[in-house]
Amino acid sequence: MLLRLSPTSPFARKVSLAAAILDIPLETRMADTADTSDSLRTENPLGKVPTLITDDGESYYDSRVILAYLDHVAGGGRIVPSDPKARLDAMRLEALADGLMDAGVLVLYESRFRPEEKHEPRWLEHQKGKMARAIAALEKLVPAGAEMNNGTITLACALGFLDFRFGGDWRKAHPRLVAFQDAFSAACPRFEETKPKA
Ligand SMILES: N[C@@H](CCC(=O)N[C@@H](CS)C(=O)NCC(=O)O)C(=O)O
């Protein structure tokens, strides 16, 4: 299986981490999402990373679908809980942590795609509001312990993304998230290994 990724994408980290936890080897190839000639755009019409191409040539995206696929390849019920209530809780945690990363990525893209004098403060505040509310909600939703599932894997990557791109400010008022991150990182050495390099 081939994973198209970029080195600093938190969504790609989520997939690399899930594959490492499940012991599924993935070949990797960097993608340039800005390059119109990159085959990524035919592998995934949205032109986004991560995109997974199976040995049968099937493309899977986005990261949520890829985690579900990897869980299926690993026999099922390994990182996507089988119990319906536990699965819903993990999916909601994943959706919220994904949404936090989506808003953060849009804040970063404002600088990447527009010169500073054209930045739209209302748009940036709109996205930053989503980030702040998501972090506050995650502080309440975060499960005790360090169970590895699609929700907690995504949450760990979202917090790692905040550290990498937005500094450690989130840590000040969110002790439960800090405890989660510490426990997750201690229980899963692959988390450190998949850390983005600046
Ligand atoms: N919902 C997607 C989000 C993926 C995403 O936003 N990837 C970014 C990189 S972090 C990307 O490929 N951006 C390029 C673009 O939007 O054109 C997922 O979960 O995989």
Automatic annotation (TrEMBL):
Pfam families the record matches: GST_N_3
Family annotation (InterPro entries): Glutathione-S-Trfase_C_sf (IPR036282), Glutathione_S-Trfase_N (IPR004045), GST_Omega/HSP26 (IPR050983), Thioredoxin-like_sf (IPR036249)
One GO cellular component term noted in the UniProt record for this chain: cytoplasm
Domain spans labelled GST N-terminal: 1-78
Sorted UniProt keywords: Transferase
Alphabetized GO MF terms: transferase activity
Transferase among keywords: yes
Name recorded for this polypeptide: Glutathione S-transferase
Record carries keyword Nuclease: no
Origin organism lineage: Bacteria, Pseudomonadati, Pseudomonadota, Alphaproteobacteria, Hyphomicrobiales
PROSITE patterns xref list: GST_NTER
